[in-house]
Amino acid sequence: MKSELTSPADSATFQVLLYYRYVRIDNPEAYMTEHRILCRELGLRGRIIIGEEGINGTVSGTNEATNAYIATMHADPRFAEMEFKIDASDDHVFPKMSIKVRDEIVRLGLDATTDIDPNRLTGKRLSPAQFYQKMQEEEVVIIDGRNDYEAELGKFKNAICPTVENFREFPDWLRENAEKLKGKKILTYCTGGIRCEKLSGLIKGEGFDEVYQLDGGIVKYGKDPEVQGRDFEGLCYVFDERVGVEVNRTETRKVISHCRYCGVEEPHYGNCKWPDCNEQIFVCPDCRAEHGLFCSSACKDGFAKREAEG
Ligand SMILES: [Zn+2]
Ligand SMILES: [Zn+2]
Distance from the CA of 112 to the center of ligand 1, in angstroms? Predict the structure, then answer.
């Protein structure tokens, strides 16, 4: 286990793990069955995707259970090199365990003709310190490889967030922005690094020479003792009950999300209480008291009406 990736928290008795590995898994269905037994025995909760191309997971469990899981995975030659990002936690951050088999271990919308094998074609991996250094250079374009609602909560300073629905649209986006990107050093980043494995490969495949990816993603960048999340603005969106986690522990830390009612800085997402909507929104405590946690009066009225009908 790489201790520099662990967030210190003295009293925490749980851990949240984030990990992936692009490696050939011959029989994903059989491996899923085997993996389910392991996770059940350890009492883990979370989300794991298994495919012929590898594994992608995020789980929570007690310190003992998660450490046992890491040891078991590292004993398998296929996953011996797999890096685990570890956060301390007071409890589980998932309601249940879900293990599925899919063609893509992270949904990028690529198919047999557009897919990238990151073991063959990918951008140059930069450590957090190298990534920070590279961001300071001239002629650099920083591309956020995540969805727009993730970038809304937090992103790297000066990063651009391509408005693409899925990765298949990236080549078009690159061509449309060719003027802006020509001759530039292109840096990509995502949450834990998995999406950039293919994104940076895809950009290289479009003929760009200098393409770099943030190894281990934002999560590793925030845990790095040297850069300490420097120049990441806002929180990092995560796909569990925490929604957002702190990244930047330097004086450059700031909040970039704002209350949709009054505009004050508000770092925490909430879900609109109207179940038919459930949209993730920023509402400050004062406005929550006044308007409730609703994205609009339509949602508020809908909720009130259904309450009245019992
Ligand atoms: Zn407000
Ligand atoms: Zn709503």
Answer: 47
Contact 55, 21 (CB under 8 A): yes
Between the CA of 156 and the centroid of ligand 1 the distance, in Å, is 25
Active-site residue, from 39, 161, 190, 236: 190
**Is the residue at 216 inside a domain?**
yes
Could you give the residue ranges of the DSSP H alpha helices within the chain?
Answer: 28-42, 63-74, 128-136, 148-153, 170-176, 178-181, 194-205, 217-223, 285-291, 297-309
Here the CATH number for the domain that contains residue 219 is 3.40.250.10
One-letter amino acid at 94 equals: F
Whether 8 is in a domain gets the answer yes
- Which ligand is nearest to the Cα of residue 289, counting in written order? 1
Question: Model's pTM, two decimal places?
Answer: 0.88
Tell me which of 236, 260, 283 is where a domain ends.
236
Domain region containing 222: 124-236
Q: Is 190 a catalytic residue?
A: yes
Whole-number Å distance, alpha carbon 275 to ligand 2 midpoint, is 8
| pLDDT mean by block of 10 residues, the chain; 310 residues | 52 94 97 98 98 98 98 98 96 97 91 90 98 97 93 95 82 88 96 96 92 98 97 95 93 94 92 92 94 94 89
Say if 262 falls within a structural domain: no
The whole-angstrom distance between residue 122's C-alpha and the CA centroid of its chain comes to 19
CA distance 135 to 233: 14
Q: Give the closest ligand to the alpha carbon of residue 272.
A: 2
**Ligand nearest to C-alpha 275:** 2
Our count of domains for the chain comes to 3
Q: Is residue 246 part of a domain?
A: no
